[in-house]
Amino acid sequence: MRPFTFNKAESVTKALSGKREAAQYIAGGTNLLDLMKKHIAQPESLVDVTTALSNKIESDKNGIRIGAMVRNSALTVDKNILDDFPLIAKAILTGASPQIRNMASTGGNILQRTRCPYFYDVTAPCNKRNPGSGCSAIKGDNRMSAIIGYSDQCVAVHPSDMCVALAALDASVEIIDKDQKKKSILFKDFHRLPGDTPHLDNNLPDGALIQSIEIPQNAFAKNCAYLKIRDRDSYAFALVSVAAALELSGGKIRAARLASGGVAHKPWRWYEAEDFLKGKEATLANFEEAAEIAVKGIKPLSSNGYKVSMLRGAIVTALEECVN
Amino acid sequence: MSLNQSFSRRFFLKTTSFTAALAFIPKGVRSIYEEVKRFIVPSKDVIPLMVSINKKEYSIKADTRTTLLDLLREDLQLTGTKKGCDHGQCGACTVHIDGERALSCLTLAAMIPGKEITTIEGLSEGDKLHPMQEAFLECDGFQCGYCTPGQIMSAVSCVKEGHTGSVAEIKEFMSGNLCRCGAYNGIVESIQKVAK
After folding, report:
1. Which residue positions in chain A have pLDDT lower than 70?
2. Which of A26, A32, A33 to mutate to test the interface with B (most CBs of B within 10 A)?
3. Is A98's CB within 8 Å of B161's CB?
4. How far apart are CA A265 and CA A151, in angstroms?
5. Domain housing A258
């Protein structure tokens, strides 16, 4: 690690005013310290926001608010989450290890960087780490890379499971910028596609802090599933993951949500497939057709064509799990 | 070991290899290197810390870059906690922070004042081993022993969290601790024994 100065901010106001340009906020540290050890992140100073940010989970009739400092593991045992938003807990439990879930914060989970091997290899070109240097994955080892929404600049995928569930549930990210202005960003607009600016993962303004995540109340608690397919059974990033949620009424689907991880630079929503399912019977044939709609037109890279059929199957299985 | 307590093997290896390496570098090159380094490498920042490890308070000065793992091993000589990958992938460095299992390699020492840290050294009471330590001995929960302190700290939490309903559940909730010897069956058995 490069030397840095360290300051603990006791409040959000102090954190915002104490953050210089070459500084970074630190909360759980599970991603940032790793990046600092590998000289990928080289902040001149760190601002500890663990005390400044809320670690409370508050719910009312409109939905639930999760403080940015709520640890990932806390979300997996919270009664309100388990009763009304179990998809969040299911997704988190498929990610990382118990130790890391105890450390990682909600805000940090959303801001975690990609796990593309070339992003971590400082000897290889990578437009995300070093803009303009090129993308090693496009013509290299891309079996873990994106199959949709990528550009000729970057094919990295977002590694979070929690974010896939948040995307499916139409969450919003509540932020406060460096001028202390509060703003709400819809989850679908929070993360970016790589385009010509792959070094930018999301639309959080410079120096701003995530204060909380809000999820509007929904009727998906009874019929939701998170399916993650990976190289080993536990403690691995997704090859493909699917968050599925159905609102059922007498065998008919009133509303459907489908989102995936491991396929794009951001948690990916399958809107067309959702629209197809709306109003249909919850049958295997309809699930298969929805999956077909989702994967239609996907153009994989040289080594990740397997993800297309894997995704198709995962969508069907996740939808079946919702009703079984 | 009995040779000289204050002159450890670690100290010997460090000092001799460093001196040997220095001897091979010409003096001129070394002074140029020192000059360049002063410009390129920003100076380190040392801060005072009050930390509580195994119910004992320590007042210590540490580089801001120091991880809890390095603080334990290098500054406090609590070498029971092991450094495996140093990147949060193997679990060898697992300790308890405020009673919850966490990775000391991904925790900055600067962030632990006010928190209670428990390491493998703090698990036993005097000569009386923790039930999990006894179980690892009885069930052969290890072979080479390097991952064992992390396995045991994690196993204690696994039981406390109540994730011992089945072998599959234990395996899932111990997946953050790798064992290259493959003593997994003994580890699962140890946890089942304590959970009973």
Report:
1. none
2. A33
3. yes
4. 10
5. 224-323
